[in-house]
Amino acid sequence: MPSKIVERYKRILSGEQKRFSPYEFEDAQYRKQKVQLVLRYAIENVKNWTPEQARRELSLKDVKDLKLHLVREYIEPPIEAKPNDVYYLVDFAYPYLPKLSEEERVLWVYKEVLAGIRRHFPPLYFQSVKGEERAKICFDYMFYELMGERDIYVLPQIFGKTERAYSILKKHRLKILVDTLYFSPFDMVTEMYPILNDPVLWKDY
Length: 205
What we know:
Layout: H1 5-14, H2 28-46, H3 51-57, H4 60-65, H5 69-72, H6 87-93, H7 102-115, H8 128-146, H9 155-159, H10 162-171, H11 175-180, H12 185-192, H13 199-202
Helix pairs in contact: 2-6, 3-6, 7-8
């Protein structure tokens, strides 16, 4: 029964047992519930934290000290998570906690890339339809916030010359969009803003 997992986890914490049985999480029907029980016990009974406090304070060292690496492998990290991030363990344990919106998550990643906290975007971050949505969020942030522009009709003027377009994208760490997702800066802009897909707007550039 899933409830017995806590007793086994207590024995691991006390040193009576080194790890869970290799068959402990074999049954997919109970796996999620077992992992949640272990995480909640560690957070509420060992650390005496609230879920909100755990989300703010849980560290990689805590995960090691609490032997939570033994269940971490059964939790798929979100694409945004860095190797040392553990916040998603708390989110897994308490699914009802408020979470960042997709736009907030994308901007969190992009701002970390801009700040040098991340060397690059996560692998495959701009693939598929979801990747196109992320690309648009990043580009909008670059255009409106970093470049201080307000009118999308200036985009043909700014991005009409390929060399200048690449220079701008490179400066704002978004050259990857053309490298992996679009054929050219023109293709990118007209895909993101279909209203600009008019040859007349581009003829002078």
